Amino acid sequence: EHEDTGLLLQPLLEGQNYGAAAADGTQCPSVSVSRNNPAKRDCLVVAVLCFGNLINFIDWFIVPGILLDIQKYFGLSDGKTGLLQTVFTLCYMLAAPIFGYLGDRYNRKIILGAGIFFWSGVTLGSSFITESHYRIFVLSRGLVGIGSASYSTIAPTIIADLFEEGKRTTVLSIFYIFIPVGSGCGYMLAAGMARSTGDWHWAFRVTPCMGGLALLLLILLVPHRIQRKTAAHRALSISGTIQRADEKPDVHRTAKTTWCQDVGSLVKNCSFVCSSLGLTAMAFVTGALGMWMPLFLYRAQAVQGIVPPCLQESCNSSNSLIFGGITIGTGILGIIAGAEAARRLRKKNNKADPLICATSMFISALCLYIALMVAQMNILSTFIFIAFGELFLSVNWAVVTDILLYVVTPRRQSTAIALQILVSHLLGDAGSPYLIGVISNAIQAKNIPSLQWSFRSMQYSFIICAFVGVFGGSFFLLTSFYIEEDRKEAQR
């Protein structure tokens, strides 16, 4: 009997549980445990996925957490500094469709494990790069982005297969809480290691150890096979009838045809397109904030005379620590609040999800604009309005993903997530860190070099984020006009 134990198409009659019966009718112990306690099994799988998501986003934000040190070490302008995160995001988004293609067709546990191993190894290697090899350091960040793409694309689809719609939003909220938690921990870990060791390179030597633990947990606790809701649809698309487990279709021809059909269908889905554009605006703003905000806060404090210019070996990292703490706190609170608001308001209004996202984007844009305007006068007020801005941005994370999962048919979900990642990063945070840096350079070039213009150049550059936030809210508002029809279509 043909079994899918590697990168082979999973047949329709693959076991309805997370393992498959042996040829003689016996089962391995893990399958027996899974059948006896499916709730515990699902919780363990989600716990492992959440831990991996934590490490994933810690790696994302190690560089912004020690940006002053890296900028001084390699002697970089604002533009070249922003390029670090842009290269990371470009590689991430270009790899996402590839992993979406693989995740819809092949064994997801193997892909996740390979991704964790790859990005952990590259992160460790990047900690030994010297100041004369800046291009290699940029390349290493791009390779880490490729590894991260495998995780962000596939992990949410496993959760979607484990839980029905009623529980899915709650579980996705838990999963996405680790985006801001991981991001904040990235700032704090990087700043803390640089401060305690006096060498920023040590910040890149912690997460590889955590990645090794995540890989071990993935191997031990996550079943090799995970029941796919897409199996029946895929089998029918192959032959028009139910496939036997031992039949071997033309893998390459079928996958190629299905991919084209998936993309064509998704482009026609108005709710998917509009919500993805709203997410793109979110990504633009969060990418710019994540990369530059600690440096912006430092320059604002330097202009006010609160902190001295960075001349010592290890630069002042207090802003990274504070901003990391704000990111964690507002992220947890925002995601929980968003999920709870969606749960309650859906009972009264079928359009609640996109309306929640639109409202939170408009409020976040206003808070960010106010934070930029008061930065030179009152740093405490700046921190407060930044916190509110991040809070309302975080409201949307789980809600946007849940919109995708119920307006897109299950057999296209990995592909949809991959395309959403591609678009949101291509037009969002792939370019925003670099764009902010380039605009800042251009403004500084037209004025006499000074602390004042160093601050103002960043302030004026950041204003574009507030306007992009308004555009994002408008796209979510537009989503509300199509959400009911597209949801019914996906259910059919």
UniProtKB/TrEMBL annotation:
Pfam families for this protein: MFS_1
Location in the cell: Membrane
InterPro entries listed in its UniProt record: MFS, MFS_dom, MFS_spinster-like, MFS_trans_sf
CDD domains per the UniProt record, alphabetical: MFS_spinster_like (cd17328)
Coiled coil: none
Transmembrane segments: 43-63, 83-103, 110-130, 136-159, 171-190, 202-222, 277-300, 320-342, 354-377, 383-405, 417-440, 460-483
Gene Ontology molecular function: transmembrane transporter activity
Membrane protein topology class: Multi-pass membrane protein
Record keywords, A-Z: Membrane, Transmembrane, Transmembrane helix, Transport
Record domain Major facilitator superfamily (MFS) profile: where: 45-484
Keyword check for Transmembrane helix: yes
Cellular component GO terms, alphabetical: membrane
Keyword Transport: yes
Family: Belongs to the major facilitator superfamily. Spinster (TC 2.A.1.49) family.
Name of the protein in its database record: SPNS3 protein
Gene that produces this protein: Spns3
